[in-house]
Amino acid sequence: MTEPTTSPRTAPVVVRTREELAELRPSAGRTALVPTMGALHSGHRGLIAAARGRADSVVVSIFVNPLQFGPNEDYDRYPRTLDSDLAVCAEEGVDVVFAPDVETMYPGPQTVTVHPGEMGAVLEGEFRPGFCEGVLTVVSKLFNLIRPDIAFFGQKDAQQLAVIRRMTRDLCMPITIVGVPTVRDADGLATSSRNVYLGPQERRSALALSRALLAGADASVTGPVGILSAARAVLKEAVTATPPVVVDYLALVDPETFTDVSADHRGEAVLVVAAWVGETRLIDNVPLTL
Ligand SMILES: Nc1ncnc2c1ncn2[C@@H]1O[C@H](COP(=O)(O)OP(=O)(O)OP(=O)(O)O)[C@@H](O)[C@H]1O
Ligand SMILES: CC(C)(CO)[C@@H](O)C(=O)[O-]
Ligand code: BAL
């Protein structure tokens, strides 16, 4: 008989209501929050691993937030896999899973929301109007309900991370925001809950996103114009792939403001891309130092 190589961890406490959360709060100590929409994968595991050791309790929230989805987006078909998510949380040593229903998070009409300002109108905000506002509003609610000392977000969603950092600064929220590097599969595709939508051919086409970012990164000594043209060349080929890659945007932006950097920019920048493969919209980015 083979002995288990790792000791099983205790299953997390699952809470669904504000009252249950409030009961746990006094004994939680310093609290780390990892907000998610579930369908947990290696990217989420990376966030949880980063959170462990930074706090007494790690809370993972699982909530598919209707407010950040547009009317023609994938809210209804978004993967919901609570049982396997709980198993992942147990393996990763999560203490508490907060999995509220929509009524708990939105008990009435949402008349007051958190507006992201100009940063929320560009790139993701242009192609997903209301997305950043929906994210900031639900993240504020999660912060108020869970009252974390520190919260972890993925750099894969770089603009989301930037607007959340800006919100906590502008609204004086006493929470440290930590960005965690993007986790990729062996073929380079950033892990994402939406990757389950991709068929094998679509997945092959989708690799053009990470290849374009890599081409841009390889050209970083040539400056912004060279970076963008190297990345664009890869995406141009992918437009004629089967199935084709349909690009929403490719941009080289300031990591804090998400405005385009100038042609002579030096210092930090993020090369960001968003594109459709079939019915699936994917985003990815790479941080660069020019
Ligand atoms: N590959 C990844 N590497 C690092 N962090 C990630 C990765 N994928 C997701 N995250 C982070 O996990 C958190 C929860 O994200 P979410 O549950 O929306 O997963 P997702 O895979 O980004 O989903 P989607 O496919 O809907 O974009 C966010 O902070 C997100 O940036
Ligand atoms: C931060 C978040 C949990 C808010 O719904 C979501 O946008 C996500 O999973 O990245
Ligand atoms: N991963 C960010 C959440 C969203 O795309 O709606």
UniProtKB/TrEMBL annotation:
Catalysis: reaction(s): (R)-pantoate + beta-alanine + ATP = (R)-pantothenate + AMP + diphosphate + H(+)
Binding residues annotated for ATP, in chain numbering: 37-44, 154-157, 183, 191-194
Keyword ATP-binding: yes
GO molecular function annotations of the record: ATP binding; pantoate-beta-alanine ligase activity
InterPro entries associated with the record: Pantoate_ligase, Pantoate_ligase_C, Rossmann-like_a/b/a_fold
E.C. designation(s): 6.3.2.1
GO biological process: pantothenate biosynthetic process
Residues annotated to bind (R)-pantoate: Q68, Q160
Protein's cellular compartments: Cytoplasm
PANTHER family noted in UniProt: CYTIDYLATE KINASE/PANTOATE-BETA-ALANINE LIGASE, PANTOATE--BETA-ALANINE LIGASE
Protein name from the UniProt record: Pantothenate synthetase
